[in-house]
Specification:
single chain; about 550 residues; ABC transporter transmembrane region fold; Rossmann fold; 18 helices; 12 strands
């Protein structure tokens, strides 16, 4: 698994050092136990018997220093791993295809980020387990030295209790998986509420249902499952805690009668068992930790597999001008197929055979669900064809050069998003004459507010004005091809008229190739060419050399 590789990406010497420190710490703690036991039974030290207090202080000091070094390294390791895992997820998103991201959904990303917190503490848990195992082994060796039969009896008794604990814990894993599924659904519902808050408020029924039938119902189901899982864990914890009292009772009352142990051995056994409570608790806690880590790794592995890479190699970057000045885009038998969740059937677009020349103003028309937006996604490289080929300037568009192909377009889709930050490094200042001209062109003079400190423009505009601001950003990209998906739908009649009769012709005069998806049939006569889609196929492709007025008449 890729995320395990990140966990193990530290140098081997680093892990060897941590394991060594964990072993040293374990032996030091065991040494302290033996020292305490020998002191209680008045057994003198084999060396420096008169300076036992100094030996005790020395052991504590060395143990403290080792623990400090060990945990300092663990803090650094944990922080580094958390950052590395977060970056690994972000890089997967950076190179993910849009198609895969659509299938994945935002909620899976949020869940993956949450899973990271579970994996972050894994190295520390692992090292603590090594430390605990060493102490447990050394303690049982010490018990066997004092009384082999007594040590064997206690080992068998504790093993039986451990098996009982593990069997009871097995049923919790399924419940945790169900809780995680509910969490995924919750993030999806919450995403719908936040992004569709306006639409939610437009319907009392919709507003009521999204809260009561989805969000609140999901939270209540999660609460019930969490309570059930927590109670099972609580039962296990109580079983584990009180099993220590049973063990102490066995040592105090049963072992002396069965094996004739003297009170000194009984005392040593009791102190050793009390000392074992901490290390064994660490090992017991490993069971739910293992369950949670297993679930987190499975989820992250699914996340990893669902995102295919869309990576640009260094060689491709060096050929970023390989396409040259834009002349044409050509579709040859391009076909795209996907499952329509709304209609519960497969939608097939194509086969499409079409060529768009540089400098054209092309209108893409057709009814809802006819395939216009899917065509735009194929055209701009967001979708890759299931069959057929796409060429730009007679150069085949491949998986490797698709990111460069996409960068030749400036696209504004129906539900366009305006970023809060200036990720394009535009010069968004009042002194930028190009920007000022575009603001005037889009009739936003005196409306747009500048944030000179952050080098951004204010997004607090009406939806129509936001679309105009998106157009300004698209023009600042200075690409040859502009794709607009129902751009004028939210503009007032006056600006819509200006858009089709003045703005688009002016952009064409500047050498832009314009592909506009539109329903505004009153303005069809202002383009060079109309391509009509119906049920995923091009049913009409009328070029400029034929009468565009006749085409409009036929469409009407």
């Amino acid at each position: 698994m890729e995320f395990l590789k990140v966990l193990l990406s530290r140098s081997k010497s680093f892990y060897v050092f941590l394991v060594f420190m964990s072993i040293v710490n374990g032996f030091l703690n065991t040494g302290l136990l033996m020292f305490i036991n020998d002191t209680i039974v008045h057994k003198p030290l084999p060396i420096f018997p008169k300076y036992d207090w100094l030996v005790f202080i020395t052991l504590i000091t060395i143990s403290l220093v080792c623990s400090k070094i060990f945990h300092t390294y663990m803090v650094k390791l944990t922080s580094n791993i958390r950052t590395d895992l977060q970056i690994s997820i972000l890089r997967k998103l950076k190179h993910a295809t849009y198609q895969d991201f659509e299938k994945l959904g935002n909620e899976k990303v949020f869940t993956a980020m949450g899973d990271i917190n579970m994996l972050t503490n894994l190295p520390e848990v692992f090292m603590n387990v090594i430390n605990a195992i060493i102490i447990v082994v050394c303690c049982f060796v010490y018990l066997f030295i004092m009384s082999p039969i007594g040590g064997l009896f206690i080992l068998a008794f504790m093993f039986a209790l451990l098996v009982f604990y593990l069997v009871r814990n097995k049923g919790v894993e399924k419940r945790l998986n169900e809780i995680r599924n509910l969490q995924n659904h919750f993030w999806r519902y919450l995403n719908d509420l936040l992004l569709g808050f306006r639409e939610t408020k437009m319907s009392m029924k919709r507003n009521e249902n999204i809260h009561t039938k989805f969000l609140e119902k999901n939270l209540k189901e999660s609460k019930d499952m969490s309570i059930q899982a927590s109670i099972k864990y609580l039962d296990n914890e109580l079983t584990g805690s009180y099993s220590w009292f049973l063990t102490l009772g066995v040592i105090m009352f049963l072992l002396p009668r069965l094996f004739n142990m003297n009170h000194l051995d009984v005392t040593a056994f009791l102190i050793t068992i009390l000392y074992l409570i901490g290390p064994v608790a660490v090992l017991i806690a490993l069971v739910p930790t293992y369950t949670n880590v297993k679930i987190a790794l499975e989820r992250l592995d699914i996340f990893n597999k669902k995102l295919n890479t869309d990576f640009v190699s260094e060689e491709t970057l060096q050929k970023s001008d390989a396409f040259g000045e834009f002349r044409s885009i050509r579709f040859e038998n391009v076909k795209y197929e996907y499952f329509d969740e709304k209609e519960q059937k497969n939608f097939v677009l194509g086969p499409i055979n079409v060529e768009i020349s540089g400098g054209e103003m092309l209108f893409v028309v057709g009814g809802n669900g006819s395939g216009k937006t899917t065509f735009a996604y194929l055209l701009t490289g967001l979708y890759r064809p299931c069959e057929g080929n796409i060429y730009i300037n007679d150069v085949l568009v491949t998986d490797e050069n698709t990111p460069l192909f996409r960068s030749r377009f400036s696209a504004i889709y129906t539900n366009s998003y305006l970023f809060a930050e200036n990720y394009d490094d535009f010069e968004l200042s009042e002194g930028n004459r190009t920007l000022a001209n575009y603001i005037e062109l889009m009739k936003l003079s005196g409306i747009i507010k500048f944030n000179n400190e952050k080098n951004t423009l204010d997004r607090n505009l009406s939806r129509g004005q936001q679309k105009r601001l998106a157009m300004i950003y698209a023009l600042l990209e200075n690409n040859d091809i502009v794709v607009l998906d129902e751009w004028a739908a939210e503009q007032d009649p006056s600006f819509r008229n200006y858009f089709y009769k003045v703005l688009l012709p002016e952009l064409k005069e500047k050498g832009k190739t314009i592909i506009a998806i539109t329903h505004d049939d009153d303005f069809y006569s202002h383009c060079d060419r109309i391509v009509k889609f119906n049920y995923g196929k091009i049913v009409m492709d009328q070029k400029e050399e034929n009468s565009i007025e006749q085409v409009v008449e036929n469409l009407n």
